Amino acid sequence: MKIIYSPLYTIEVAHKFKTEKFEKTCGLLLKKKVISAEKIIEPEMPREDDLLLAHSPGWVRKILDMKMTPEDELTAEMPVNKDVIFAHLLHCGGTCMAAEIAIKEGLGLHCGGGAHHAHKNYGAGFCLINDIAVAAKKILRQNPKMRILVIDLDVHQGDGTAEILKGEKNIFTFSAHSKNIYPPRKAKSSFDLEFDSGVSGSLYNKSVMENLEKIFSSFKPDFVFYNAGADVYAKDTLGDLSLTMGDIEKRDEMVFELIKRNSCKAVVTMSGGYAADIKDTVKIHFNTIKKAVEILGKN
Ligand SMILES: [Zn+2]
Fold first, then answer.
1. Rounded distance, CA 286 to CA 32, Å?
2. Which of 40, 152, 233, 237 could be a cystine partner for 158, CB 3.0 to 4.6 Å?
3. Centroid of ligand 1 to alpha carbon of 47 (angstroms)
4. Measured in angstroms, how far is the CA atom of residue 86 from the centroid of ligand 1?
């Protein structure tokens, strides 16, 4: 099973987003033989015309020229240097490559991606480039009749994705998130499922699945982006829900079974995860990829 990953995803800056989680997740996948080293594919840089599918010319210019202002850093809520911008470009290229693999082989795994707070003309919430919006629009450019469902189960709303993809009749954005945390101003997805703080895993999973089943039967997607945020975890420092690791495994299993039952092609991205112990975040991302391989992988 191929998987997209770059060691350049690890950035040495002091920040609550511990970027070494990607490296550690990839390492665990190798150690436990879920993937083999020769199947790891390094992402390529996205093309400028691909970035322009989802972002404004002004923002794309700032990214490619690597010239962010202090205000841009404040809005993105993270220190931005050339390594950071380069890594974010690679994450975008990686999700685009995972989508190409999914088109050909059915499943595209990305040990990265899911920068869902990036807006059309500014970065936000640790995100600079909306890789899923770019990749979804790129698929539509090549396959205009494809019906694309974005399932965003990060604990924070996929506000940037919702805003950028709004009005695309062949794209449905579904975000299930906590209502009381970031982003303070929620966007309008095609469907938003909001939870109160502390909701249990069983209630979360039941509600997510009931709604997803309805969406699959009415929208009839051909292609799914699954943004499998690990920050729904009870011990996440930036989340406020109460899911155990077992609940999250069940969540992923149900999503992948639904994708399989509906014969959809799928891309899996990691998105957020800020558990007090990084090993927990890594284990959750590991479990997601393992489950995707078990249920949707063919080789
Ligand atoms: Zn998040």
1. 10
2. 152
3. 26
4. 21
For tokens 């969540």, the residue is: 251
* Terminal-residue alpha carbon distance, the chain: 6
- Total count of domains within the chain: 1
Distance (Å) from CA 275 to ligand 1 centroid: 11
Provide the edge-to-edge strand list for the sheet that holds 40-41: 40-41, 3-4, 107-110, 265-269, 223-227, 148-152, 171-178, 191-195
Which CATH number belongs to the domain containing residue 113 in this structure? 3.40.800.20
Per-block average pLDDT, block size 10, for the chain (299 residues)?
Answer: 96 80 98 97 98 98 93 90 94 98 98 98 96 98 97 98 98 98 97 98 98 98 98 97 98 98 98 96 98 89
Going from the Cα of 217 to the center of ligand 1, the distance in angstroms, rounded, reads: 27
Instruction: Say how many Å lie between the CA of residue 231 and the centre of ligand 1.
Output: 6
Is the full-model pTM beyond 0.85?
yes
- Identify the CA nearest to 194 among candidates 155, 233, 161: 155
